């Protein structure tokens, strides 16, 4: 089975950079034709796609967040990491990593595997 697991801080201060790592098992992030995405759900709101990295290492970002979003990967560890700079309280959300056939989607069914999610709160 394919498993994804998010890890990182649950609390970050405004202006800091949030870094969340997704560890993937049961599939390689480099060999299968999939996109590996970061999606979040703010409290009381719907899903928001943040960005993705393809099996080839190509990155894609939401236009509204592009200036402060970066996705990297460590192929030796089968991990990919979200870096979200200059966070504000509006970045408080449940953050998920997921595998999908499309790189940009806020439709849950477009992703076949999800991490369990990790709550991130931005507060001083």
Number of helices: 0
Number of strands: 11
Q: Alpha-carbon distance between the termini?
A: 39 Å
Backbone CA Rg? 13 Å
Low-confidence runs = none
What is the helix content? under 10%
Classification by helices and strands:
mainly beta
State the shape.
globular
Order of SSEs: EEEEEEEEEEE
> Can you give the mean pLDDT?
96
Strand content: over 45%
Main beta sheet strand tally, sense and closure: 7 strands, mixed
Brief characterization of the structure:
The protein has strands at 3-7, 11-12, 18-25, 35-41, 48-54, 59-61, 69-74, 79-84, 93-100, 111-114, 118-122. Helices cover 0% and strands 49% of the residues. It is an all-beta fold and 124 residues long.
List the defining traits of the structure above.
single chain, 11 strands, 124 residues, 7-stranded mixed beta sheet, 4-stranded antiparallel beta sheet, mainly beta
Question: Overview of this structure, please?
Answer:
The chain is mainly beta. The chain is built from no helices and eleven strands. The protein has strands at residues 3-7, 11-12, 18-25, 35-41, 48-54, 59-61, 69-74, 79-84, 93-100, 111-114, 118-122. The strands form two sheets. Strands 2, 4, 5, 6, 9, 10 and 11 form a seven-stranded mixed β-sheet that branches. A four-stranded antiparallel β-sheet has the order 1-3-8-7, with no helix packed on it. A hairpin with a 4-residue loop joins strand 7 and strand 8 (79-84). It starts with a strand and ends with a strand. The model has no long low-confidence stretch (mean pLDDT 96).
